[in-house]
Amino acid sequence: MAKYVYTFTEGNKDLKDLLGGKGANLAEMTNLGLPVPPGFTITTEACRHYLSRGSVPEGLDAEVEANLAELERTMGRRLGQADDPLLVSVRSGARFSMPGMMETVLNIGLNDESVVGLAARSGDERFAWDSYRRLVQMFGRTVQDIEGDLFEEAVEEVKAAKGTTDDLDLDAADFRELVGRFQDIVLERTGRPFPSDPREQMALAVKAVFDSWNAPRAALYRRQERIPADLGTAVNVCAMVFGNLGMDSGTGVAFTRDPASGQPGVYGDYLQNAQGEDVVAGIRNTVPLADLEKIDVRSHAELMGIMDTLENHYRDLCDIEFTIERGKLWMLQTRVGKRTAAAAFRIADQLVDQGMITLDEAVQRVTGDQLAQLMFPRFDEAAVAGAGVRRIGHGMNASPGAAVGKAVFDSYTAVKWSRSGEKVILCRRETNPDDLEGMIAAEGILTSRGGKTSHAAVVARGMGKTCVCGAEEIDVDTKNRRLTAPGGEVVEEGDVISIDGTSGEVYLGEVPVVDSPVVRYFEGEIDPASDQADDLVRSVDRLMHYVDAARRMRVRANADTAEDAARARRMGAQGIGLCRTEHMFLGDRRQLVERLILADTEDEQRDALAELLPLQREDFAGILEAMDGLPVTVRLLDPPLHEFLPDITELSVRVAVAEARGESHENDLRVLQAVHRLHEQNPMLGLRGVRLGLVVPGLFSMQVRAIAQAAVDRMAAGGRPRPEIMIPLVGTVQELEIIREDALRVLREVEREHGVELDFPVGTMIELPRAALTAGEIAENAEFFSFGTNDLTQTVWGFSRDDVEASFFSAYLEKGVFGVSPFESLDVDGVGRLIRIAVEEGRAARPGIKLGVCGEHGGDPASVHFFHRVGLDYVSCSPFRVPVARLEAGRAAGRTAG
Ligand code: PEP
Ligand code: MG
C-alpha cells in the first residue's frame, strides 16, 4: 500500500518530488541533528489523488492519525489539549518553490478552552488570545474563503476604539474581543460556527492546502515559471514554536552568503517578539542578523554554527528561516537559496576555491540566462549621481535591462512616436493585450500596478524588453498623460525618463548607458588578469575557460557584415554559421536588382549581374578576412523577390498622377506590372529561397562566383578563407541538385581562371518539414545541413512569425497554451522531432555530414541542450549570444549535466 505520510525523521533532501522542497529539507535538517520542531509531511502523491478524484486517498486519514499520535507522544501534549495544547502549523510545500502562491495555516489546535490553557502555560494571556485570533483569521481566509478585508476592518475598528494604530497597543482583552468578532464573521459568512475541534481544523486545513495548488495565482505562476501543472503540493504539519513570546523570542531569515553580490559572510534580518508573517508584512523594522549577537549571544552562536553546517552539507548558498522561542533556537526551513546572476557566478567560483565543488559542478550552478543578464547594458552609476538625473520612484524589476525614452501614456502614441524615430517608454497603470503594439514599439515599459506575473511583466520578458512593473508609489494618469512620482515630480508626455529593469529604479532624465564589465571582458577590453577586472569578471572568465574545454559543440555566429563578424570572433565565435545576404541587395543596390528582375533581354540581365558581382565580392572579402581560418557559411539570397521592388501603393499613385497629367510613365508602368505580377498573399510561403535561384537565372551563380573570387583574393593576400555555400528553403533534393551543380560548375570555372583549388562545401538549410522528412535523399547532395529553426517553427506550426507574435501570442502565453514562445525556445516535441529524424537519416546517408543550427534557437539555453543531445556539431547565434551558447554547450556536455 502507498505510504502517504513521512515523519521528518524518515525523509531526506532527495525526496523533493514526493515531499516537496520544504518537507524534504526539513527532513534533511532533522537527520543532521539540527533543532527542527517535530512534524510530518503528507506527500504530493496524496495531493494529486485528492485533486484528481476529489477525495483523499484511502488510508491517508489513518496515517495522519498515527503520525499525529506519534507527534503528541514526542511533545508530551495532545493537539488542542485544554490545559496545555499542542499547536501545529499546516504549510504547503511543492517540488519547486512558489513563493506566496499557496496557503499556510498557523496555530491549529486553539479553541475557546485550549486558549485558556495556552495562556496559563505561557504565562502570557495576550499572546494566547493573539494566537487564537490569528488562527481564526487565517483559517477564515484560506480555508473558508472569507474576504480578508472583513477581518482587517474588525482589527481597525478595535484599534480605533482604543485610539491607536499600532498592534502592540492591543492587550489580551482586545484580542479576546477580536476572537469574538472574527467568530461572528465566520458564522455569518459560512452559516456555521468556527470549528472548535482541532482534528477538524487540521483536516480542513490540509484540504485547503491541497486546493490552493489550483488557485488561479498559483496556476499562473506555474505557467510563467514553466512548472508542470500536475505535480501537486506536499503538506507539512509541524509543531508550532513561537517567536512572539516576548523580547527573548523572535524570528528571522538568513542567507549563508549575500544572495545579491555573492560576498562570503552571513547575511539576514531578525525581528524580536514576532512571528514569520510579521517579517513579511513589514509591520516593524527588522535588525541586521549581526545584531542578534547582542540580543541573544547563545542563539546567535548556535545559528552561525548551523549555517556553516548547512552550507557544507548542501555545498551551496542556503537560505533559512528560524525562530527563537524564549532563548531556544528552532530551524523552520532551509533551501538552496535564489540569487542574482552576479552572485551565482561569484558563489560558484568561491565554492571551487573552497574545495566544496568541482569546476564541472560550478558550471551547472550558473545558467546562460544569468550570463545574458550580466551582459545587458546598464546605467552608468556615476552619471546617476550627476546633475539632471533624479531617482523618482521604484517598482518591481520585472524584465532586466536599461531603457531610456520619452514617456508616453498610450499604445497609439508609442507606435506613432517610435515610427518617427523617437525612443519611448510606455507608461501605463497596467497593460492589456491592446497595448501590445505600443509595448513592441517602446524601449521599455513602466506600470504602476501588477506584480511580476502581470501582463506587462510576462509579455516584456517574453520580448526581452526592459520592464519595471507595479511601481505603486507612482501615480500614472493616462487621461491627462502624465505621471506623478511620490516626491511630487510630474512627468508629462514627452519628458525623458529612464527605467532600470534590473533594479526596478525609475529616473527622471536620461541616464547614460554603459556596456557591462562582462561584455567589455568578452570584447577583450578588460584583461581578466589585470587590476581592471573585478571579482565577477574573474569568475566569469574562469567558468568560460572550463566550458570551452568541456563542450563538444562548436559555437558560430550569425553575422553578415565584417564588423559583426569581427565582434563575433572576439566573443568567441568559431566561424559564421549564417551569413545572410539579403541586406547586401538593399540601399543603392536595390535598383540593380530591380533591373535584374525586370530585364527583357539576357544582355540586360547579364549587365545587372555584372554590376552586382564586384559589390558582392567586396562584401564577402571583408567577412572572410574577419573570420580568416574559420568557416563562413554564406547563404544565397532568401527573401521574396517583391521585397526588392518599390512599394505598390506609391508606384500606383505615381502612375495615376503621371497619367492624369499626360506625362510619360512607361517605365513606372512596367515596374508596376511586375510588382503586381510578383505580389504574393503569403510571401513567407511564396517565391523565396532556392525557388528564387531557380527562376531568376544567373542570380545564385553570380553569388557563388562572388564568394569564390573573394576567396581567391583573400588567398592572394595570404589569408585562409573557408567559405561554405548554403542553399536556403530547399524542400526537395531536386531543387538542391540543380543549384548545387551550378555552384560546383562556377567554382571549377573560377579555379581554372585563377589556377587555384577551391574545395568549398556546398550544403543546405533544413527549414521545411519536407526537407527534414527526406533528409536522407537530401544528404546525398549536401555536404552539410544547417537547421533553420525559425522557418521550421513557422512551417511546422503553420503560423507566420511576423503576424502571430504581435497578435495572439500574448493570449496564448497567458492561457498557458505555451509557457514560452516556440520562436524563443525550441519546440522539442514538434520541431525537435523533425530535427531528430533529419539528423538520423542525414547521418545514415552521409556519415560525417556536418550538422548545425542557425535559427535563433542556437542562442537559447534550453534549445542548446537539445541540440547537444541530438548530436549537432555546432550552434550558430547572434554575436551577442555567443558567450551564452558557449556556456550552455559546455554545461550540456558536463559530467554532472542533468
Ligand atoms: C531560419 O529560418 O531559421 C533561418 C536562420 O533563416 P531566416 O531566419 O533568415 O529565414
Ligand atoms: Mg529561414
TrEMBL record:
Reactions accelerated catalytically: pyruvate + phosphate + ATP = phosphoenolpyruvate + AMP + diphosphate + H(+)
Domain PEP-utilising enzyme C-terminal: 541-889
Required cofactor names: Mg(2+)
Enzyme Commission code(s) on record: 2.7.9.1
Organism: Streptomonospora nanhaiensis
Keyword Metal-binding: yes
Entry-linked NCBIfam families: PRK05878.1 (NF004531), pyru_phos_dikin (TIGR01828)
Domain named PEP-utilising enzyme mobile: residues: 422-504
Highest taxon listed in the record's lineage: Bacteria
PROSITE patterns to which the protein is assigned, alphabetical: PEP_ENZYMES_PHOS_SITE
The protein's name in its UniProt record: Pyruvate, phosphate dikinase
Alphabetical UniProt keywords: ATP-binding, Kinase, Magnesium, Metal-binding, Nucleotide-binding, Pyruvate, Transferase
Domain Pyruvate phosphate dikinase AMP/ATP-binding: 17-55, 60-285, 298-344
Gene Ontology MF terms in the entry: pyruvate, phosphate dikinase activity
Protein family: Belongs to the PEP-utilizing enzyme family.
